């Protein structure tokens, strides 16, 4: 087996977490540890270090384990997740699986069984890639680098960088992402690098996710960065870079606009 697969453990129990980490290291895995759901979320969604599998305890200090799994699945994280529980109650197991976990294991875990389950989930995870994501009326398929838009006859192909860029913006969960962050996490550039690279890719990406003049603006310019809204909403003129023709989206139904959109810029 590969000795470089990376497993993230999220468990508030220092003793149990350290013991599991030592066991996984003995099986040849690279291990990262955390005690909180917020840090586990940040690590799972970061593109700076790939996580191949997550082991999440059901009772984290800042969030229930099943709720963390559901949150990650909503944000498009397809990484295999094993939920660890101290209870064999049927409701706990079913709740974890329904939330999106790939497996539920009850402590204490038997070493040979643990190793076999890890290998099985890592094989399955490598084959399935990212889940399909909804962006407005379009379907974003990271695994094949395609965007399927109802107004376009054929799927639109994305480059590797466009795919990584769109994923990072999607995982921003509707919040602005700075150009500096995009440069660092998508390109691995230092802060001294020009942001023109980001602006060029944003321009090309915008033409693909908003392919016609009828398209609702989804990729919105913010001060110092960009924000992706995945909802099909009307957006006030000025929040989106208008095409060269001078066309802007009319505010025919302003009641559909979230008040938060008016604070952009």
Model description:
The protein has 265 residues and is of the alpha/beta class. It folds into two domains: 6-128, Response regulator (Rossmann fold, 3-Layer(aba) Sandwich); 133-263, Winged helix-like DNA-binding domain superfamily/Winged helix DNA-binding domain (Arc Repressor Mutant, subunit A, Orthogonal Bundle). It has eight helices and twelve strands. The chain has helices at 14-26, 37-45, 65-74, 90-99, 111-128, 160-170, 179-187, 196-209, and strands at 6-10, 30-34, 53-57, 81-85, 103-106, 133-135, 138-141, 146-148, 156-157, 177-178, 219-222, 225-228. Strands 2-1-3-4-5 form a five-stranded parallel β-sheet, with helices on both faces. Strands 6-7-8-9 form a four-stranded antiparallel β-sheet, with no helix packed on it. A three-stranded antiparallel β-sheet has the order 10-12-11. Helix 3 runs parallel beside helix 4. The chain is elongated and about 60 Å long. The N and C termini lie far apart (50 Å). Residues 232-265 have low confidence and may be disordered.
Q: Please give the order of strands in the largest beta sheet.
A: 2-1-3-4-5
CATH superfamily of the largest domain: Winged helix-like DNA-binding domain superfamily/Winged helix DNA-binding domain
Number of domains: 2
Total helices: the number is 8
- Radius of gyration based on Cα positions: 21 Å
